[in-house]
């Protein structure tokens, strides 16, 4: 069996660009993959065109060796753009492997270790009461874990949103930490009084704090027993994480910016986190995410894979297949693609959610397809992520 072609698409059906690959073979079977990297989609697509030349004529069944071929093809360490492109290929090769074996990918990885993949939903509101109502609505739908935020990232610390200078350029968020630090414990005090102590609640700081601020917040949140506090600081700051750990027993989740296994080692070895937030899409696919989760296992670190709307339905399916199997599964962040008709037509069909658990489709491979013709109706739209600044104009995050 040989790879004959790799098609690369960037499509924007819902305001979010998705990078999609189709790996074609001489035996008619093909695999689908995804390399979406929010704000950098065109760059990943160009990288895939570059990788394609390496892979034409290769046997697609040798996914491990092809992973290393792509990795070693650049002498330099490769970062998020290369790693996302590599993931797109890896997903497609597992999809092909499953189709050949006539088995869903999770069966090839070891079979089901649980009935379904527990997910967390995103509750929000302008004040604690609105957040409470939003949490209750998700609980009624069967959610087992709910993330609670006032407003967007930065919560009540966001003082203003400034529109971009022209369409497509980044907007600006004006943030000051004082209000955020004071209001966030009050939010959880309200939620615990209203909902009791047993409901699983988490919160995403999105790296808006200094280590000392984050340690203070994690300590204030201790009485409210969070499922986890996510990304309190930037993931590179190991000294900062040690400081937080020394001062609070609030569970920590971190890692959606991680692209290399080496970045995980100190986090695991020193038990600086409880949940690792990698996305298989940004670390090199199923092949590498599985190895990272094996490295995490002896240190009691569980998965909480990144799964916001900036990853598409193919990446979600790949994450669900892997987390059906790994022993140290924690929770999966959930984006509801099935409720968007256009996404069900473009990616027939996204994974299903029932009573708070996600399920992989049981068709062979990843169980999801891609409608090329439809994708052409939704061309790429340039866009950048927002920039955070302080009130005096200083760029936020140091
Ligand atoms: Mg996050």
Describe this structure in words.
- With 398 residues, the chain is an alpha/beta fold.
- It contains 14 helices and 16 strands.
- The protein has 2 domains: 3-103, Enolase-like, domain 1, CATH 3.30.390; 108-363, Enolase-like C-terminal domain (TIM Barrel), CATH 3.20.20.120.
- Helix content is 38%, strand content 19%.
- α1 packs across α3, α6 (177-195) packs parallel to α7 (211-221) and α7 packs parallel to α8 (238-247).
CATH superfamily of the largest domain: Enolase-like C-terminal domain
- Separation of the first and last Cα atoms: 50 Å
Main β sheet profile: 8 strands, parallel, barrel
Morphology call: globular
User: What is the CATH topology assignment of the largest domain?
Assistant: TIM Barrel
In N-to-C order, the SSE pattern is EEEHHHHEHEEEHEHEHEHEHHEHEHEEHE
Whole-number count of domains: 2
Low-confidence parts lasting 5 or more residues at pLDDT below 50?
A: none
Query: Biggest sheet: strands side by side, in what order?
Result: 4-5-8-9-10-11-12-13
Q: What keyword list fits this structure?
A:
TIM Barrel; 14 helices; Enolase-like, domain 1; 3-stranded antiparallel sheet; globular; 2 domains; 8-stranded parallel barrel; alpha/beta; 398 residues; binds magnesium ion
Question: What's the topology here?
Answer:
Elements (H helix, E strand, L loop, with lengths): L2 E9 L6 E8 L4 E5 L6 H15 L7 H10 L6 H23 L3 H4 L8 E9 L2 H13 L4 E6 L7 E5 L9 E4 L1 H19 L4 E5 L6 H11 L6 E3 L7 H10 L4 E3 L7 H8 L5 E2 L3 H4 L1 H12 L5 E4 L7 H11 L5 E5 L7 H6 L5 E3 L2 E3 L12 H4 L11 E3 L9
Parallel strand pairs: 4-5, 4-13, 5-8, 7-16, 8-9, 9-10, 10-11, 11-12, 12-13
Antiparallel strand pairs: 1-2, 2-3, 4-15, 6-7, 14-15
The protein binds magnesium ion.
The site of magnesium ion has 5 residues, from loops.
